[in-house]
Amino acid sequence: MKLVLWVLALLAAAAVIVLTAYYNTGSVLFTVPPYKVELAFNTFVLILLFAFILFYALLRALSGLSGLRSRKVEQLTRSGLKAFFETRYDRAVALAEKAARLADRQTIKVLNAVVAARSAHQQRNYALRDRLLAVAREQAPAGRALALIAEAELLLDEGRHGDALAALQSLYSTGGLQSTAVLLLELKARQMAGNWDAVLELTKVLVNRPAVDRTLIDELRFRAHLENIRKNAKDIASLRKYWGSLSYREKLDGRLAVAAARALIFLGDNATAQKIIENGLDAQPYPELVTLYADCKSGVVSWQIQRAESWLAKYPNNAGLLLTLGRLCTYGELWGKAQSYLEASLSIEPGYPVHLALAQLFEKLGKQEAASEHYRKGLDFALKRIGTA
User: Fold this and answer.
1) Count of domains forming the chain
2) Which domain covers residue 90, as residue numbers?
3) pLDDT tens across 206-225, in order?
4) Is residue 284 part of a domain?
């Protein structure tokens, strides 16, 4: 129906033009001193029409040439991306680099420059990668963020965490809320740099992002706290202060409690170490804390025995607790109770530590034959463990 209407309109226009030309006897006079040119009006109209058609054809030709270039860039972009994901990095570099040179639009130029840079990185051609990233950064503002994110990621992969952080800081200077992926890049860079305080700050932000695994955040926080405990393990005041800054939940993490208590015992602060261990064991019988409690000589062994017996009532038949009680009673010279606890531990879980504790007890009691027997059995357990390691 639309075609029919167009045909009728064209026929009507043609009829009007023919009738106008037939009855029109006017002329057009052009005067450019000293020349004069007079044309029939119909001839003038035909010249105008021809000029319009010629101008329109020229515009179409130019548009076609421009479209040809755009189609070429589009084809190169598609082929470059395909080669990149097929891990044909040499071809991806060639195609994407050419597309970046030919592209007029900033976004397409940046996209191809980054693809070429990533491909060059996979080939370990870092000089070419850096040059291509510089090309992408120059296309501000369209390419700055994309180029800086790619630069940070690739530099981290190369192990240059300092330069990666510099790229991220340049990105942050533009303002705005940063994506989870960008924050994870910074988190990795901070880990590589050993800046565990910054890692802890980043985890506080990332924990509220739905795309981030909470288990991963918890492990990162544990690692950061553990490294900070080690960093502060040379000074009692610093270590106490850092431990005090932890949340109640974090202080109940047996792994952190062991690290802090062990460092404090080494520094001679057995009282603080004892409190840390006792708070941890009140929550759960973490095996390393149980073992460490016997090494914490605070001077009031009767209190330690009382606390350990309360945990044993809560967690009966715990071989580790029985061993710790035996060692504490030995230290307190409660020989009968010590032997009873150690033999109970041995009946539940035989091993090198309990045989060693019994051997040391019998040595104190002057029973050398029994001590030698337990030393021998303990050595057998130790050798078996080495053999299966």
Assistant:
1) 1
2) 26-142
3) 988 888 888 989 999 999 99
4) no
